[in-house]
Amino acid sequence: MPKLIKCDKIDCFANICHSACDCLVDTPSDPCPFFKTEEEVMEGRAKAHKHLVEAGREDLIRKYEYNPERKW
């Protein structure tokens, strides 16, 4: 079972249940290299989706069931 690292950044996408980081495997540094707000994550996913559409990779879009309207 992976070790859960305490995180106090409640607005980070990787902070599960507002208590532990889902990305870190060791004590966090400051600034955290994984810190992203939900808005930043959604922007990144939209950019990746646009790239997949332009590349004609509907197979990957279907495989990962990306839906730009969905909240993760």
Written account of the structure:
- The protein is an alpha+beta fold and 72 residues long.
- The chain folds into 2 domains: 1-36, no CATH class; 38-67.
- Helices cover 32% and strands 8% of the residues.
- The protein has helices at 38-54, 58-63; strands at 5-6, 15-16, 20-21.
- Strands 1-3-2 form a 3-stranded antiparallel β-sheet, with no helix packed on it.
- Strand 2 (15-16) and strand 3 form a beta hairpin.
- The radius of gyration is 15 Å and the shape is elongated.
- The chain starts with a strand and ends in a 9-residue tail after the last helix.
Keywords, separated by commas or semicolons:
single chain, 72 residues, alpha+beta, 2 domains, 3 strands
What level of helicity do the residues show? Answer: 25-40%
> Mean pLDDT across all residues, rounded?
76
Number of discrete domains? 2
Order of helices and strands: EEEHH
Biggest sheet overview = 3 strands, antiparallel
Find the structural class using helix and strand composition: alpha+beta
Estimate the global geometry from the Cα principal axes: elongated
Catalogue the unreliable spans. none
Main-sheet strand order equals: 1-3-2
Our Rg estimate from Cα atoms comes to 15 Å
Q: How much beta, percentage-wise?
A: 5-15%
List the helices and strands and how they pair.
Elements: E1 5-6, E2 15-16, E3 20-21, H1 38-54, H2 58-63
Antiparallel strand pairs: 1-3, 2-3
Question: Brief overview, please?
Answer:
It contains 2 helices and 3 strands. It has helices at 38-54, 58-63, and strands at 5-6, 15-16, 20-21.
